[in-house]
Amino acid sequence: MSLVSEQYQKMGISEAVYQYCDQILEQLKDRFETIDQTAEFNQMKVLNAMRKNQVSDIHFAATTGYGYNDMGRETLEQVYADTFHTEAALVRPQIACGTHALAVALSANLRPGDELLSPVGKPYDTLEEVIGIRPSIGSLREYGVTYRQVDLLNNRDFDWDGIREAINERTKLVTIQRSKGYETRPTLSPRQIGDLIRFIKSIKPDVICMVDNCYGEFVDTVEPSDFGADMIVGSLIKNPGGGLAPIGGYICGTKACVEQCAYRLSAPGLGQEVGASLGVLPSFFQGFFLAPTVVAGALKGSIFAANLYESLGFSVIPNSTEPRYDIIQAITFGKPEGLIAFCQGIQAAAPVDSHVTPEPWEMPGYDAPVIMAAGAFIQGSSIELSADGPLKPPYAAYFQGGLTWYHAKYGIMMSLQKLVDAGQVTL
Ligand SMILES: *Cc1c(COP(=O)(O)O)cnc(C)c1O
To answer: Fewer CB within 10 A of the end CB, N or C, for the chain?
Structure first.
């Protein structure tokens, strides 16, 4: 027995589970090599932006109050803009989360009478209330912004004709969600998004194309901003925060769009000049610096889980061999016991709250009890190893993150161990 397998055994992983996982991992060497190459490329992209902007310890100082002349904040925003190849960026702790960043980007660039179009089907749950698909206080709908949606054909292909028909004289902004989120459609690649943007702009050149880039950053060597997106938007407690940012969101894009966002985020007349960084800048810089390798670890975890559970007969999305454009993995257990054991395994492997046993609970806004595993340093951080799923058919767990590949690996092995112990799987 090797030193490491002995250590895993001390930590509750049986020899049978370890051997089974090891044989799956043997087959993934080439795939992991490709992920490492992407990480290497993206590491250089970030490093290059930091060198170009002469990041220095003066940029790590905390500002307070209005935060005028915050050189660190301005430099960080330039580093984001240079990395994602955009003219400008807004990267702030005042942006509370991904939903907030998206709400700012939308409401800043839409005016009463404008129409918003989603050509990729239903957006992420929390956006339904931002847009007003579900009635909500302060929604775009309350401000007289209408919404139109064109679904994907067969849950996969763009409905080109439908999109052409949906674009009208009021269409001002198109929102494109890269990740599947909690839907079963595939995640879109930056190139596919580029094709869509080109098509939309060929019909109406001045329409603003915004991409919800949540969970997609650094999975590929390119981003949607390399293919014509006017804005890309995301959360710092997901990929680009590298696990270190304790809060925050970003909007990168054209100078005109980002300027609108800055006035909306602070106040008309104030804009980008206001917003103290309150001491979070070191974690923003350092987290962004680590993000390419953190994302690589998370991606290896997703691929390992897909291959492991597919080999055991469970349905997994994406499947074991598909290309990846985000870090989310869905595993369908078909039974509540499977979903619960899986989540309990992820929790038991966590660096924080490993002693806690997650149980399904009735969460506000959901129509079935939800079970969540999240032993995270930062509350709700889903770049850290986490899993959740609603207790209703098909009993799917959504799994993502892992600040290091080895932690993701241990979490997945522990999930299998719990399934074996619960009699849900026989090896
Ligand atoms: C997570 C996510 C959001 C919302 O981000 P929060 O930080 O949870 O508010 C929006 N869109 C997609 C695709 C996401 O994955």
So the answer is: N
Do residues 239 and 141 share a domain?
yes
Separation in Å, CA 136 to CA 99, 127, 130, 141, 229: 14, 11, 7, 9, 28
The full length of the chain comes to 427
Q: Is the CB of 83 under 6 A from ligand 1?
A: no
Q: How far is the CA of 88 from the centre of ligand 1 (A)?
A: 22
Domain of residue 26 covers 3-42+289-421
Tell me if 216 CB under 6 Å of ligand 1.
no
From residue 67, alpha-carbon distances to 70, 252, 279 in Å are 6, 20, 11
The CATH number of residue 349's host domain is: 3.90.1150.60
Percentage of residues of the chain with pLDDT beyond 70: 100
Residue 341 shares a structural domain with residue 203? no
Looking from the CA of residue 127, the nearest atom of ligand 1 is: 10
Neighbours of 53 (CB within 10 A): 17
CA–CA distance, 400 with 144 (Å, rounded to integer): 37
Q: Which ligand 1 atom is at minimum distance from the Cα of 328?
A: 15
Query: Of 293, 278, 311, which Cα lies nearest the Cα of 425?
Result: 311
**E runs forming strands in 163-206:** 171-177
Q: What's the confidence (pLDDT) of residue 365?
A: 64
Q: Is the peptide bond before 318 cis (omega within 30 degrees of 0)?
A: yes
Q: Same structural domain for residues 243 and 105? A: yes
pLDDT at 2: 86
pTM above 0.70, yes or no: yes
**pLDDT less than 50: residues of the chain:** none
Q: What pLDDT is attached to residue 182? A: 77
Regarding the beta carbon of 126 and ligand 1, being less than 6 Å apart is answered yes
Q: Say yes or no: 315 and 226 in one domain.
A: no
Query: 268 and 305 in one domain?
Result: no
Which candidate, 182, 108, 173, places its Cα nearest to that of 147? 173
Best substitution site from 214, 232, 295 to test ligand 1's pocket, by max atoms within 8 Å of Cβ? 214
